[in-house]
Amino acid sequence: ADLLVSLYSRFGPTFVERLDGDFALCLATDNELILARDSVGLRPLFYGYKDGALHFASEMKALLGLCAEVLELPPGHVYTQQQGLRPFKSPRYSVPEFDSPEEAARILAELLQGAVEMRLKAGNVSGVLLSGGLDSSIVAYLAKEFQPDLKTFTVGASINDSEDLRRAREMAQYLGTEHYDYIYREREIEQVLPQVIYHLESFDEDCVYGAVANYFAARLAAQHTDCVLCGEGADEFLGGYHELKEARNEIEFLQLSQDLISNAYHTALQRLDRMMAAHSLEFRPPFLDGRVIAFCSKIPPAWKVYGKKKVEKWILRKAFAGLLPSNISNRVKQAFASGAGSAKVTELIGQRACSAEDSTYEQTESTIALKSEAEIYYYRLFKEKFPEDSFEKLVTRWDPLTRR
Questions:
Q1: What DSSP character marks residue 107?
Q2: Among 9, 290, 291, 337, which one is least packed by beta carbons within 10 Å?
Q3: Is 79 helix (H, G, I), strand (E, B) or coil?
Q4: What is the mean pLDDT of each run of 10 residues along the chain (404 residues)?
């Protein structure tokens, strides 16, 4: 807080352009009130007005019944009483140049190592959310170098195809971490689903599926630590999404990649932030380090999704080749909810719970099209907690292939 005041006294409202990392902040003086949010949007910030007075909160539920209309401060924006809402420029990071994939892979590994080390040195971090996929396994591998007594946490559904549980156990054994896992059952998902949607502040079915697994993971980790590292961000900046394989040329790849990055705060990052907050658990994602992001933006698309087989995150795999078990380093990208087994079970629960009355919904009151019977049920749970129309308007529905 003292640093923010010092920067503001020197640079005025433009001090936010000099902040490194993720943040959602308010700074108040005798003559000014400033709200700002980091460029990725990892930390949420909402605001609204009542009787001409500005109200703001880190969760929209805090403004429930207080403001007639609730708005979300967009990522990379600052609000001041004098100038209103405007975008701000993020810090420019100086990152090394490279002439070959080998050199790019080496630099990427070094930057990620530095990002992990910096977050561990910030204190309180003693664990990693480990799915057994490439990204979280790399974070765990790097963290173990600096923290020998590292803890790792994994959750999965009580079905035979919860691959995350198997792969995470293999990775934890390989690293020698203090590993914890938890198997959640269908009945438990039914019990926590209303709370998941309440904390998530969304009824989007894809977001709900992943949030269920995030909820159990956060609950497990919070029993053993106050702060964890995680692998979020790699898919957005290093070509992890299968949709990117559909790009017909480099321009389309870059546009789709930017769309995925721009919407991450309403998808993977939203469910991660809200479920961690539900259990008072802090999290730090090394892949969203400013220098890592700046370097990833320089990597050619052809090195992210590579060759005729269209190998996703190829440059990241190359950066850590030989350092991870082959079945981890070669594991094909799975949606988080699929790997953790929560998608299938949560969908079935929603389908069964969708009543005849519910099924008459084809769209929400604010004309958002509902995708399935399961989502109709999630929407009903959402409306029970957030009846005002302005809240459902904040739920983002987006298809990366149609840009909706």
A1: H
A2: 9
A3: strand
A4: 85 89 90 92 95 94 92 95 90 92 98 97 92 96 97 87 86 98 94 98 94 97 98 94 89 91 91 97 96 96 93 96 92 75 86 71 68 89 91 77 45
CB–CB of 156/164 below 8 Å?
yes
Q: Are 153 and 180 in contact (CB under 8 A)?
A: yes
3-state secondary structure of 249: coil
Strands (DSSP E) contained in 239-342 are 282-284
Q: Which two tokens stand for residue 190?
A: 């039914």
Residue 219 CA to residue 223 CA, distance in Å, equals: 7
Interior/surface letters 308-330, b for 16+ CB within 10 angstroms, e for the rest = eeebbbbbbbbbbeeebbeebbe
Domains of the chain by range and CATH?
7-86 (3.60.20.10), 101-345 (3.40.50.620)
The vertex-129 CA angle with 340 and 142, nearest 5°, equals 130
For 327, the 3-state DSSP assignment is: helix
304, 314 Cβ separation under 8 angstroms: yes
Going by C-alpha positions, the residue among 9, 44, 40 that lies closest to residue 27 is 9
Entry pTM: 0.93
Q: What is the distance between the alpha carbons of residues 360 and 354, in angstroms, rounded to a whole number?
A: 10
- For the record, the structure tokens of 396 come out as 């983002």
